[in-house]
């Protein structure tokens, strides 16, 4: 079961399952001397409705043998006891699967919780910095830009502001109107760059140095030095507007995911109103630096954030070993190559990416340079509410509230959601 249906939501995935996975797996099993029947329980509903159905299926001891889940739900479902580590369900075949060698440890984290694999990731993405090479040249900046610190980013933005009229130097998503895009494209990558994660060792980050550093960065950009457009952060369609303004060379630097490259500004398949005919020559991309070199999470010089979906095994399966064979088959190199026909995107497998992404330097860059250093959101039930609090804190700062007051409001609201004992303050 997955949230995909022919002619509707995630139709390409549904077609792949129905037209390639099922017949190919059935044929492979027949060749091995087994007659099997695979039933695809297609869904095409709102994500929260799908999440509720999956939870009820697990809770009642029913449901499909292989189930697609958003990676952000893994921890929540694991803590609730709905899902179990793959090896506990299907045994040694999981540990000995050769596919793990092709999926980087950092990517495996998308379907892991508390150090154990609960599923297999189905894709990969990463956040980077996009910039307009032509605008950089106008400002006398290098068209091959790779900032090494937050200071480098700010210095480039200051130069752009001084030397190029009619251009917003820097767009770092903020505010509640942009929703999760504020958290994933803005706050969390910068928090990782400050050496912290929003949740660790059983506690949520409260009044910490990293939280203050990130909010201080927002204050510098939008209030103190006016390097970004604070009004854009408050508009209901602010994110789409930022796409449009970047495509029209009215924003010089933009923090976004690879979705922006392969879908929004794609000259052949661009969605909405922002495809760029000159994308490949005009748009540059760079890794997100730590606040200072070596100060990112795990002592990293560069950081990123990733999301994505996963497939898990149902602990209630009557045929767990066969269910694992199906899951492993769906994550083989052949399966991902078949899935990629017509739609180029980053798979979780290095061997597939090396072959299929050779024609796209940007997606290759994300696969090779960004995924090994990426981080993930905590897959916990409280996360969505915590995310909204982070969005509000950035909005507070962007609209002129002090960092001290924004932090105080954030911590107070956080404690009301998760409890004071689950909030970590201090260094």
Describe the protein in words.
Strand 2 and strand 3 (116-117) form a beta hairpin. The chain contains 19 helices and 15 strands. The mean pLDDT is 95. With 427 residues, the chain is α+β, with helices and mostly antiparallel strands. It has a four-stranded mixed beta sheet. It has a three-stranded antiparallel beta sheet with strand order 1-13-4. A three-stranded mixed beta sheet has the order 7-8-15.
Top keywords for this entry?
427 residues; 19 helices; 15 strands; alpha+beta; globular; four-stranded mixed β-sheet; single chain; three-stranded antiparallel β-sheet
Tally of DSSP helical segments: 19
State the low-pLDDT regions, or none: none
The secondary structure category is: alpha+beta
Span between termini: 44 Å
| Rounded mean pLDDT score | 95
